Amino acid sequence: MQKRGFVRWTVRILLGLIGLVLLLALAIWMYLRASLPKLDGSVSVAGLGANVSVARDARGVPLISGVNRNDIAYATGYVHAQDRFFQMDLLRRVGAGELSELFGAMALQTDRNNRLHRFRTRAQQALQAMSAEDRAFLDRYVTGVNDGLNALTAKPFEYTLMQANPRLWTAADSLLVVYAMYFDLQGGLQSRELARGWLAETTTPEQRAFLLPEATSWDAPIDADSISTPLAPIPDKAPEWWGKPRMPDAVKVAAAAANFVDHVGSNNWAVAGSRSKDGVAIVADDMHLNVSLPNTWYRLAFEFREGQGVRKVAGLTLPGAPPVVVVGSNGRVAWGYTNSYGDYLDLVTLEVDPAKPGQVRTPKGWETPVTITETIVIKGAAAEKMGIRESSLGPLRELGGKTYAVRWLAHQAGALNLNAKRLETADSVAAALDIAPTMGIPSQNFVAGDAQGNIGWTIAGLLPFRSQQGVLTTYPMPLDGSVLSFDSALPPADYPRVLNPESGIITTANSRQLAGPGAALIGDGGFDIGARNRQARDGLLALGPKTDVTSVYGVALDDRALFVAPWRERAIKVLDAAALQGKPLRAEFLEHLDKGWSGRASIDSVGYRLARQFMWAMYEELYDGANGQLFQLDERASMSTASSRWYAVVARLLDEKPAGWLPAQHASWEALQLAAVDRAIKQLTDNGKPLSSATWGARNTASIAHPISSASPMLKRWLSAPADKLPGDAHMPRVAGAKFGQSQRMTVSPGKEDQGVFNMPGGQSGHPMSPYFLNGHAEWVSGKPLPFLPGHAVHTLTFVK
To answer: What is each CA distance from 214 to 259, 530, 668, in whole angstroms?
Structure first.
């Protein structure tokens, strides 16, 4: 009897515990449901000019319809906040250097680095300079954001997990989101200058001319077939650090270097009406960024009254930023961007004299910097007071035992404004090219096409006005004033531009844009080597004289391994009978290069991965010693940040075999290459797996997740996209990495938006319980195009005056 009673008592406890767990699960589910937005019905809104509707299609893409543009701005803010508020919050905190308030001490170093630029103060200054019309437009967006946030029955789920509360949005926050993009798109410029400064101290001018070529045969500029730059002679002797063995931390250094190449990207192109089947220009754009959940971009379309008609605009917005279409089409003009990688930041060397405390000497003389104290709030710890010294040339930074002033275009007046909104009503490419140089955004390659078939390129955003131009400005500025930093921003009328080139095609892909004199106005801030742009340009030309949207879109999916193929051939050549004698792994390596080669960065290709690994192993054999020293100077500095053209340098050495550049530990250039093969083999088999398992897909596996997913394995499963194996790589149009790649793909003809195509990673919503969290992601993985415009309305929310 006692035993049966104990069993019944135990069963009751277990049932009770199960019930409590179920109740807790139900409560969590109900809470999460409560943080989802309202999609149907009506909402009364003060201050509207007229009623506004938000009609979402089956993928959650809204079509916002209203009478005036300010009402559209309000509705955009509302949907941004309901679908993406936490993402917006992170972006403003990145821009302001305020992440530690949410994440604690783990984010403190990032905040220190970013707070140096005092972008919150600069955002307030930009607001004061804004016209009354633009400020009213921005304020309507801000009101929409806060109304959308407050309309949620429960706060966004991320704040509950982090035991925090969301802070209301302000107009300055929207400008900070744009500053966050400055960090994303130009944040590597300091590291590049430091790396090149170190090179200036450890090489002769002749060695630098060889190691840092200004162009290579891969370049495919807009205004010429190629760039004719004479090859610098190979000096008799290499630098002291050349070919030195790896440093103790070289594994970390090598990993950083090998992954850097995955993080350069963006393609766009325009095909003139003379080459399209219907006489209308075709514009394609795929911007390459870090990919997470939710995606960087938020899709929408809107329509509002313009004169006696209706203006319709569709494309991408950046949640939190001023509510304009970043990339898209307005029915008459379509446009897109790639990062321009110009020379937009200078480190100016300063002198500090102990006999003159508090003063610094600039190239213009002695001065006393102003010290400003910034307070960094840290979750779970006392706030930190950070003193920032501002000179006439910019904030001061101590790097490698030296004092520099950081002079960055992002600090200039005009670095932020709302002029991008004017593109929404541009009626021609010529008009769009006039607008682009006036825009306050990180400087981008701007490519556009119009309904009349015209195409054009220029730079959107600020360019530096330099009294001196050339390669010397890519190094830290010397104290003697022999090389000066930029004076101010270049007047928009002086910007380079290309309109309707004879080829009927314009392509950009982060490489050098021009062969002509306009190139000096942009400068080299880390151009890509150009292979991707050449492959895209040649791919478009191969489409023939009359092409269409579908074919032009297909170029973005080109994963042919044209850049890596010569490295495969080099590895095959060096693996001769003598090299294979008694070396079974080398023999297997050769077999995979032969039979496992698809000619593409395809997920099942072992040959592609081995050839690429060999290429990077050659880099490590020659540059490890330098990278170890650069890593101590700056964790983002390496020889690959100093110049993306190292591939051409190494290839030339392997072809010409100069004795003075062969590292002492190798008996011959063939022995050096075999050492690289052995290094690649070791790297691919150290995990205990055979070479046959080293497919490209095994390395290039998507790791796309929400930023807070790393808090626990359970969260990661819930807040991640599938671990798909991704075709594509850096030096081809289809750029793909585990956490980096094409953040969207768009191809459209203005006026024919209903024929346009689009896809992007993730979905519209940042909420894992939303049906729009991953809606469309599978199509992005496969490359299947989806319609550019929103489809039929499934949900309609109306804002009532």
So the answer is: 23, 12, 29
Residue 287 banded pLDDT, cuts 50, 70, 90: very high
Alpha helices in 575-633 (DSSP H): 577-580, 584-595, 606-633
pTM: 0.94
Q: DSSP class of residue 304?
A: E
Contacts of 374 (CB under 8 A, 6+ apart): 97, 115, 118, 385, 386, 387, 388
**Can you give the C-alpha Rg of the chain in angstroms?**
28
Tally the residues of the chain: 801
Q: What is the mean pLDDT of residues 653-660?
A: 98
Q: Which residues contact 284 (CB under 8 A, 6 or more apart)?
A: 267, 268, 269, 270, 336, 552, 553, 555, 556, 745, 746, 747, 748
Query: Measuring CA to CA, which residue among 38, 6, 251 is closest to residue 152?
Result: 38
Write out 654-713 in H/E/C secondary structure: HHHCCHHHCCCCCCCHHHHHHHHHHHHHHHHHCCCCCHHHCCHHHHCECCCECCCHHHCH
- How are beta strands 795-800 and 41-44 bridged, if at all? parallel
pLDDT band at 255 (very low <50, low <70, confident <90, very high): very low
* Distance in angstroms (rounded) separating the CA atoms of residues 462 and 446: 12
Please report how many Cα atoms fall inside a 13 Å half-sphere around the Cα of residue 731, on the Cβ side. 24
Contact 570, 654 (CB under 8 A): yes
Q: How far apart are CA 628 and CA 644, in angstroms?
A: 18
- Strands 327-329, 309-317: pairing is antiparallel
- Of the candidates 451, 437, 439, 420, the one whose C-alpha atom is nearest the C-alpha of residue 331 is 451
List all residues 6 or more positions away from 164 whose beta carbon is below 8 Å from its beta carbon. 102, 379
Separation of alpha carbons 699 and 506, rounded Å: 33
Cα 650-651-654 angle, rounded to 5 deg? 85
Query: What value does the mean pLDDT take over residues 685-692?
Result: 93
Residue 22: is its pLDDT beyond 50? no
Six token digits for residue 558: 């080109």
Long-range contacts of range 350-356, CB-CB < 8 Å, 24 or more positions apart?
350/391, 350/396, 350/403, 350/404, 350/405, 350/479, 351/403, 351/479, 352/403
Q: Can you spell out the DSSP letters for 253-292? A: HHHHHHHHGGG---EEEEE-GGGBTTS--EEEEE-EEE--
Torsion angle of the four alpha carbons 23, 29, 35, 38, in this order, in degrees rounded to the nearest 10: -110
pLDDT tens track for 433-460: 999 999 999 999 999 999 999 999 999 9
Q: What percent of the chain has pLDDT over 90?
A: 87
Cα gap 175→317, rounded to integer Å = 14
DSSP label at 756? Answer: -
Express each pLDDT in 6-17 by its tens digit.
Answer: 556 555 555 554
What's 173's DSSP letter?
H
